[in-house]
Amino acid sequence: MVGLSIGEQHFVKGGIAQDLRTDGRKRLTYRPIYVETGVIPQANGSARVKIGGTDVIASVKAEIGRPSSLQPDKGKVAVFIDCSPTAEPTFGGRGGEELSSELALALQRCLLGGKSGAGAGINLSSLLIKEGKVCWDLYIDGLVISSDGNLLDALGAAIKAALTNTAIPKVNVSAEVADDEQPEIDISDEEYLQFDTSSVPVIVTLTKVGMHYIVDATAEEESQMSSAVSISVNRVGHICGLTKRGGCGLDPSVILDMISVAKHVTETLMSKLDSEISAAEACEDES
Amino acid sequence: MFNGEFLLPRSPPRLLLFFRLSNPLRTQILIFIKSLSAQNKMSAKPGAATPTYSPKVVGRSRLPIFKDSDLDWSRPDGRGFPQCRPALLQTGAVSSASGSAYAEFGNTKVIVSVFGPRESKKAMTYSDVGRLNCNVSYTTFASPTLGQGTDHKEFSSMLHKALEGVIMMETFPKTTVDVFALVLESGGSDLSVVISCASLALADAGIMMYDLITAVSVSCIGKNLMIDPVTEEEGCEDGSFMMTCMPSRYEVTQLTVTGEWTTPNINEAMQLCLDACSKLGEIMRDCLKQAASASDE
């Protein structure tokens, strides 16, 4: 991205201070969100989300695996993010690795909750087929095609939509076997189980520019930020994850204020996202 | 080193453990332990309690929590919920580094060494500001289960983020500062200890910073919030809250929350962390002052 001149920087900061951003939005308004599901036929679930100029695809693949010995009653989920060089030339090769791992870490934190599983968006116990032997491994992949700021929110929305679209085949475990043998499993082609995504949280990133915070920053606005806090709130209004990015220090009262603003914004965002996802699913069913 | 009742019984078994290893690290650690016992840098009076940075609990007493929750959690080491482990901090642990620090918080033992500012071999392009390179690695004997002593990429990037906001990078253009952290024993709240120890090592190296940074983590189990969790508590926690702040400026530089939290819980956790961070900041300053006065003599 081309750097901003001093005049442009003042314009961006001044606009935010006066609640009128460069594209005419208010500080707490999102850009139009466009959701499309079922974009990758080979995956168990997939979705494409466009927020303004930011375009991301999320896909969910489920494979049979063994539960880990530390947690034999739970399935496994792995999140990988890939920032494609089509978004930014600097993302080619090893360049985008740092950003990818940061995004993957933040998303994993929001989706999987605490160690005991509290606050998890995905119920890992529902991925279990046979305790200690067979479970589903979910591989959630995110691909950033075009980057215009606010990648984390877009990826969070895409993963939520992809999980809603995910259909996991029903598995019949045949015949009881001895403890040390792998049981035979029969993966059905006909029957599918839909994932329950009512507890998957949405992520809201609040970017602090000057004295005010904005929601859904574009790449220009992000270049002027002092710090950003990404807060993931679930349907009940509890915080499922929080990550602070950016080097500048924040006063603790500012962080608490950001949390309350994020909760307020989440209500509108979640209902908007739900309606978009159900519209996309309906569209997909028709075609 | 030998000034707290927790420490003395533990040190002999540790020396024995190192004799059995055929690890190239062994000689380095043996020399280091000898140097610690030789120069008693932490010159607290014998018999005085090791300083701890437990925060003050403001307002209501802790008892209602026990009654409400069905999970009556008692901490494995007998601490109260708002009580932190005693902290042992020493600078100058590694003589070949520009600056170093050793921290022992209960069973979590971390050593951090700082090299620099020195020539950046990787970056060929000129940059106005200095570069920071962080690396956190675990020894193979750090955790009770035998693990591979690999670099912890996640913690390395989080340490980098914590430190980049507080180091004045403009003071060493064209050069790099390397921060290497080695976790000798993992006993819980590893990243918080690594961050605090790293900032002490940077101060020992004389790198200019806006303030010392201290990190504290809080664990949520049921309705109980406990500060400075140990490995057992971290393994079954419902949520974790790790905060890094600059105590003198009263600013939060890094905040990581996982699990499900209600807003009152977050408020409480934040208050606990801020209080503990400011007290830990004072302990770190005392340690630096003692090291400075000891070198003056």
Automatic annotation (TrEMBL), chain A:
Q: Which UniProt keywords apply?
A: Cytoplasm, Exosome
Asked whether the keyword Cytoplasm is assigned, the reply is yes
Q: Out of the domains of life, which is the source?
A: Eukaryota
Principal localization reads cytoplasm
As for subcellular location, the record says: Cytoplasm; Nucleus, Nucleolus
Q: Which Pfam families match?
A: RNase_PH, RNase_PH_C
Family, per the entry?
Answer: Belongs to the RNase PH family.
The name of this protein is Ribosomal RNA-processing protein 42
Native source species:
Camelina sativa (False flax)
What gene is this protein a product of? LOC104764502
From TrEMBL, chain B:
Which SUPFAM superfamilies does this one have? Answer: Ribonuclease PH domain 2-like, Ribosomal protein S5 domain 2-like
Q: Which Pfam families match?
A: RNase_PH, RNase_PH_C
Query: Where is this chain's protein located in or outside the cell?
Result: Cytoplasm; Nucleus
Source domain of life is: Eukaryota
Cytoplasm is among the record's keywords: yes
Q: Which residues cross the membrane?
A: none
* Domain Exoribonuclease phosphorolytic: start-end pairs: 83-207, 211-272
What are the protein's UniProt keywords?
Cytoplasm, Exosome, Nucleus, RNA-binding, rRNA processing
Its family remark reads: Belongs to the RNase PH family.
Q: What is this protein called?
A: Exosome complex component RRP41-like isoform X1
Organism for this UniProt entry:
Camelina sativa (False flax)
